[in-house]
């Protein structure tokens, strides 16, 4: 699906020499100071179905009434991720170069990314006329003759020249200057008339003598014969004879391929230095056999054949490896002009005209239609339709680098005999991706040869070498020391995998102002999406960035436990029909699991066939394996960040007189193993099935293992145990529900709550012994609305003073202690009808939550106490229109998460929770096991500074635990591992 564009751009190559740009363009050095955003979500907390998207983004971006996001693109990639891109608007005016994307899987957000401009108050009524703004723009680029492309558009823009993020009402103007030649995107302040951005869209290198006019013949034709096929052979200028696809034309064949997208069309510009495609002539051959004798002439017309073949191979690469249909992913017609000038060492891509043009070089050089240059230029178009990287400074360097990266990837695939890592190798290379220093370019971020001036748009053709070298290291691997003195080792993952990561960076996570830091973040996230958290690909992506001086080396996270494969696509199933799949026999145990079919060697034990096919995995208990021998079979890693209520299901067979024990265990990362299933003894001669809820491991990457211990005694051989048909999939269960504190009275004989009314709740009851659970009784309420609650007491004799409290757990964290959750109180009264108003805050989480109603003799009750006389009742309220799925208070929660650390992790005897407080706060810290049970809680009122609490875990069984930290009603949860010998 194509990306919507709001203005055209021209992206030139100038791969070869630093650009010496016109004086007017050197008055500014474009820079976007606000870093791009990439925020990931590891748990399935944020549901982003269509009806909930607006509320989700409102919270994530803190949108105000005048802010609006207009959906401009939506697509689903091969991994099953959904991507929705939005254009930012303010009071209906587009915000230039400000888009934001939501990335989701299985209906839940996995990440958000983009470049959002906060606008508090801006006058959108212009005081400068459009005509005056146009005149300012024309004068700014010193144009004597020009055409305006499109209309003058009112937008909101940052001040790129002043390098600040303040929003300005502005006019967006695109000019095609014919004298002198330039294409410019000019932004003029609509209040002051000042230029905020002059972005030269035609990138070119001015070489002395480039306007020497040697005319080529209008068209190269040979004797015509009847056309018989559109597939032909052609002698290319640099790549020998190749198969090409052409089009019958006037009794011959022209260089037009209509078999790919909406076509590829190459024409002869005949040394006319313009963009007039209609005025250019066709290259025509009589028999579709474009031979060297015919086309390798003095004018080097074989350059046109090379261009067509290079276009075809580039199109095929993007289609085959990245499922992309042309540069716009919508089959856009690809056009190119060859022989644009015979003394012009350049090639350019123009999105204004949606075509490329190639010069013939200068001096003894040849036309620039090489495979890698063609791919480089076409990739500028791909960038134009995806990340839209501003062509200046670091974002411009990334723009250039992605063109080099895919030039190398295409060349390695289509012409592996060429020098993959030399850019422009067919005409004398100008960049070296393996050794950038050899051409005076940097191999380390801000290291030796890093360009710091304003020329070449901030060194885009120089500083691009850093990402180029990252791509080389990630593809091939290398050990060394960078300019920072950091020793590194990168193990190559192949150019194909590295290119998949780079493509996802460019098309999914980067935006117009991305820099090298953002590229690292996008690269790691892309590798995680593609290969799984903590996978070798993620590790090497991180280490390759470290090698070029961008960020730290890989320090863990993900599996950390030696996974060679990570499964991130579900449902997953393995029945061992064609081998062990990605399962492995562990080392360090006594014996191995065996893949088998048709029955085990021993009689009266083991299965006779698989439960889901012929094969199964089993442990042979006969000599020499018995007695009491252990065999362990380990799974690949499972990334549970994108699975709703994950479940592990497997079939097992435990038949035999001496069957001992089968266990299933799970671990996160390099943590310890936690038992999730155990079964002992003879279970009969049939396959059984077990399903285990893994919701406690949401947002983590886990490994599963099956451990068998064989039987004992003289008949220990009769203890073969087998498993089959292992599945990991979304289940129908739910994560553990919050555990609420108990509250009750010791005596409800004298007074009790006899009726509660709120919304659709109208519950009458009798005395119940002090506490009644009416959570099956519920009502819907709307966030931001108020409701009347009515409570009626009953006295069996004397009428006593009673006091009342009502609580609602608005943030669904399992307690009633957060600010605003005590929604109603009534002091001592003998009234038979108690009534009051309850307000549901707009920040309350959507969904079902607990309401507690308490009546206490002679004193206002608290939420968790046991008292002498009265009664407590619990109900359910379902909040509609509130914050979706627990992203209320998201910015505050993110700040709380960043301020909290749990260490050591894994823990043995104890673990510490440290919270950095910027102000006084009520703080609660709760240690919770994987089943949702609160083990212990620390509460305190703390002042500014570091709050440290130690939790004793020495007596806890090994496994995954949660630490829930609540500060002034905002809650965050940290996972940690207990790894002891208990």
Tell me about this structure.
This protein has 11 helices and 56 strands. The chain has 982 residues and is α+β, with helices and mostly antiparallel strands. It has 7 domains: 37-114, Nuclear Transport Factor 2, Chain: A (Roll); 123-200, Nuclear Transport Factor 2, Chain: A (Roll), CATH 3.10.450.40; 206-384, Elastase, domain 1 (Roll); 386-555, Neutral Protease, domain 2 (Orthogonal Bundle), CATH 1.10.390; 578-660 and 677-730, Jelly Rolls; 744-880, Macroglobulin (MG2) domain (Immunoglobulin-like); 890-978, Immunoglobulin-like (Sandwich). Strands 1, 16, 17, 18, 21, 22 and 23 form a 7-stranded mixed β-sheet that branches. Strands 28, 30, 33, 35, 36 and 38 form a 6-stranded mixed β-sheet that branches. Strands 29, 31, 32, 34, 37 and 39 form a 6-stranded antiparallel β-sheet that branches. The chain is globular and about 115 Å long. Residues 1-36, 204-229, 556-561 and 883-891 have low confidence and may be disordered.
Tag the structure with descriptive keywords.
single chain, alpha+beta, Nuclear Transport Factor 2, Chain: A, Elastase, domain 1, six-stranded mixed beta sheet, 11 helices, disordered N terminus
Give unreliable regions as ranges: 1-36, 204-229, 556-561, 883-891
Structural class: alpha+beta
Averaged pLDDT: 83
Corresponding CATH architecture of the largest domain: Roll
Cα-based radius of gyration, to the nearest Å: 35 Å
* Helix content percent band: 10-25%
